[in-house]
Amino acid sequence: xxxxALCRRLGYTFSQPHLLQRALTHRxxxxxxxxxxxxxxxxxxxxxxxxxxxxxYPNLPEGELSRLRSNLVNQQTLFILAQQLDLGELLxxxxxxxxxxxxxxxxxxxxxxxxxxxxxxxxxxxxAARQIVLGLYVPLIAQTDVQSLGKDAKTLLQEYLQGRRxxxxxxxxxxxxxxxxxxxxxxxxxxxxxxxxxxxxxxxxRAAEQAAAEAAYLQLNTKx
Length: 224
Prior knowledge:
Blueprint: H1 3-10, H2 17-23, H3 35-56, H4 62-72, H5 75-84, H6 95-99, H7 106-142, H8 153-163, E1 170-177, E2 184-191, E3 196-202, H9 205-223
Antiparallel strand pairs: 1-2, 2-3
């Protein structure tokens, strides 16, 4: 996929292409990387989603609005959106990250997604960034069950599958990285009957399983 194709999917064309290039550049590739844009995009994203939820759910108290936002503005949701945009094909990665399939890593894809929001904000202003964020997020928000607030991803996925009389998912550790005191777990969530496999990462096996379950739950709700 080309950058022009990405812009068409986003509904935004950069007049300063170097901003998009920076948003797609991981720090392993060079000094002009996307971390500062990611910082900016994270703030824009939180503001846009908070305002949208405030307007969409006028009767929800602050606590439930916060939980709903946290279920939407997180690594796994951004990872799903990045996958839908085929963002991994366009990432600029150092040799080590390329060899370790960094273009599929949830944290790298999520960071690039936020960096794109930041790049659009820098060039086009808040309204342009708001339109792109909502264009991606509104379909997810429309499918969110407010009653599910407070339930963890594995529970939600289990309830979804049981409600359709499907077998429960299988969680498998596929890799671990780092020293014993600072390990990163990579877990695969497989739902055989649906031919769906998702991945998650976290500082513990449980956290990685939750991330993988959330990715599966989001994909199933996006398809339904």
